[in-house]
């Protein structure tokens, strides 16, 4: 089994590392964040992910996974280096290539000269990044290497499950020898596999995310419209999805998409388009629309309550969605900010994301439970799809809220269980 190194241990890197360790590979995981490495060595997952800690424990006890802050700890027998570092946006929305370039420089220093290792780009990068940034850095090392682009389609919160059972694998490479070795690495996976060139593999990831984000944006716009036109979005969709060209997944309207991927990747793709002389108007509109979608929840709240000053409003769910502690670009941040601007007293609750939320918005009061958040509240907005919230019924809201106004911003509550609640949702 080839030895592998993973550079960057966020959800993508960690899930990749543990997936490969489970398949029998010897994996070294490198991350510059020493606190993160410390946690990993104690078998604590630095991110909340279903099943991650158990798998981490298993990989560590079998000595298949070595987390380290020092890239020189990678074995001289390493055959694959996976680049899994983040690709954040610059202020103008374009992809900041510094982290991936820096990680590539570090890899270039430790490339074993006699292995012809393959550097695999898993980070989401705009088309052209591997050819224009990564390959020149590796070439400057003077050592032999292969290069591939192998994007990751996993969902945060379910990173491990999606890595172990991917729906497809995209492999971009320029040399047949690289393709052959990559195929061997993934031979146990039976899902469809696409082989293509480097730029196309980079684009497959971006176009997938752009489509999904646009789909969510479309659902939100149709729900906003349905509401104004006096029709039920759910009833409309029952007829729409009978068309087998229209897949119902990712058509759930709500307060908008968040996370480190959709908002960031859309911006990066728009900026890349602009750089190439085409500012994509549809994607620009999707971004703009999403930045305002949470206001629909505030509109419904105000329709029920009138003005908000002095009123206690609970936000259930602070992470950008359920099953994660990631608060990046969470709509809860926008909701809390705008509620505060309108004079409301905001109280938030999340099963796991409170600590990370507090770092970004220290002035929001955080409750330790749903019941505590709802106690005395005059309004509640459900912002993330946690199972715990899906199970709430009218009695949970009626017993402690001062005014039982509930806006379901993720369409997870059962309207039939809301008798007595002033229940609203978008669409
Ligand atoms: C997304 C993609 O789904 C993954 O395939 C991709 O690998 C990943 O980005 C990435 O680029 O790394 P993720 O950001 O984890 O995954 O979250 P999603 O489950 O896609 O949800 C994104 C946002 O859209 C959330 O805020 C969610 O609440 C919202 N959403 C999703 C809706 O509002 N409606 C829907 O119908 C679906």
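Sequence proposed for the structure above (427 residues):
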């Amino acid at each position: 089994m080839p030895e592998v190194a993973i550079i960057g241990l966020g959800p993508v890197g960690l899930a990749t590392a543990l997936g490969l360790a489970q398949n029998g590979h010897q994996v070294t995981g490198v991350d510059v964040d020493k606190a993160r490495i410390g946690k990993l060595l104690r078998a604590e997952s630095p991110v909340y992910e279903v099943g991650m800690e158990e798998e981490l424990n298993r990989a560590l006890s079998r000595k298949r996974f070595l987390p380290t802050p020092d890239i020189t700890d990678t074995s001289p027998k390493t055959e694959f280096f996976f680049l899994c570092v983040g690709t954040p946006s610059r202020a103008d929305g374009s992809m900041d290539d510094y982290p991936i370039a820096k990680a590539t420089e570090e890899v270039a220093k430790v490339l074993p000269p006699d292995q012809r290792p393959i550097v695999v780009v898993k980070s989401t990068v705009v088309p052209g990044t591997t050819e224009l940034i990564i390959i020149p850095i590796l070439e400057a090392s003077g050592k032999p290497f292969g290069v591939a682009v192998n994007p990751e389609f996993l969902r945060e919160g379910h990173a491990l499950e999606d890595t172990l059972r991917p729906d497809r694998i995209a492999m971009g490479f320029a040399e047949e020898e690289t393709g052959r070795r990559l195929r061997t690495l993934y031979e146990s996976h039976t899902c469809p596999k696409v082989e293509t060139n480097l730029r196309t593999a980079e684009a497959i990831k971006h176009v997938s995310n752009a489509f999904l984000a646009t789909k969510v944006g479309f659902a939100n716009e149709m729900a906003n419209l349905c509401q104004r036109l006096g029709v039920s979005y759910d009833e409309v969709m029952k007829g729409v999805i009978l068309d087998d060209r229209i897949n119902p997944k990712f058509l759930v309207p709500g307060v908008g998409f968040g996370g480190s991927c959709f908002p960031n990747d859309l911006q990066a793709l728009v900026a890349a388009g602009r750089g190439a002389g085409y500012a994509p108007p549809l994607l620009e509109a999707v971004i703009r629309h999403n930045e305002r979608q949470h206001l629909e929840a505030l509109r419904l709240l105000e329709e029920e309550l009138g003005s908000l000053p002095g009123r206690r409003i609970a936000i259930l769910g602070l992470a950008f969605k359920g099953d994660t502690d990631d608060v990046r670009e969470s709509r809860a941040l926008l909701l809390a900010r705008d509620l505060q601007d309108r004079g409301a007293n905001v109280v938030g609750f999340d099963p796991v994301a409170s600590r990370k939320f507090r770092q970004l918005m220290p002035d929001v009061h955080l409750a330790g439970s749903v019941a505590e958040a709802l106690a005395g509240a005059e309004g509640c907005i459900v912002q993330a799809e946690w199972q715990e919230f899906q199970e709430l019924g009218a009695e949970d809201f009626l017993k402690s809220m001062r005014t039982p106004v509930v806006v379901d911003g993720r369409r997870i509550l059962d309207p039939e269980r809301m008798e007595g609640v002033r229940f609203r949702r978008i669409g």
